[in-house]
Amino acid sequence: MRKLFFLVLAAAIVSCQNSENKENTGGQESTAVPGPVPDQSDMVDSSQFTSIEWLDSDKDYGKVNEGQKVEVAFRFRNSGDKPLVIFSVTPTCGCTAAEPPKEPILPGQEGVIKGAFDSNGRIGTNNKTIHVRANTKNSMDHNLNFKVEVEKKK
C-alpha cells in the first residue's frame, strides 16, 4: 500500500509540472485532466462494486494569506452494500497533497479524503482538483474540486 501511495504521489508531481501553469489561471477553470494512474483497480471484480455518496465534493475555502497551508477535506458515505475501497487519490497539482483512507469503508459508514494546499507562490484564484478512483458502480472515477483565493503577504 505504501508503494502504491508513493507511486501515485510521484505521478501527481510529474503531471503537475506539465499542468501547473494552466491551473493557476486567475479564476478560470483548469482543463488539466490527470492521466491514468497505475493502481490495482483494473483487477477488481465488478461484483464487488458499491456506491458512493459525496457529502461534499466542491468547496470554496475563501481567502488566505500567501504561504498559508490550507487543510482540505471531502466527506463521503458508502451508500452501497459492499466495502468501498479508494484505490487512488491524485491531486492535479504538486501544490496539493492528498491521501486515501487506509482501510475500506463499510456499507453505511462515512469516510474522509484529507489533503493540504500550499499557497506559497500562488497569488490569485486557485481552482484545484483531486481525482479519486474507487470500486464504484457506473464510474470508478470521481473529481473533488476546491477553490482558494490567495492574497499577497502584507
Automatic annotation (TrEMBL):
InterPro entries for the chain: DUF1573 (IPR011467), Ig-like_fold (IPR013783)
Domain of life, per lineage:
Bacteria
According to the UniProt record, where is the region Disordered?
Answer: 19-44
Q: Which Gene3D superfamilies match?
A: Immunoglobulins
Q: Which residues form the signal peptide?
A: none
Composition bias (Polar residues) maps to 19-31
The name under which this protein is listed is DUF1573 domain-containing protein
| Species, as recorded | Flavihumibacter stibioxidans
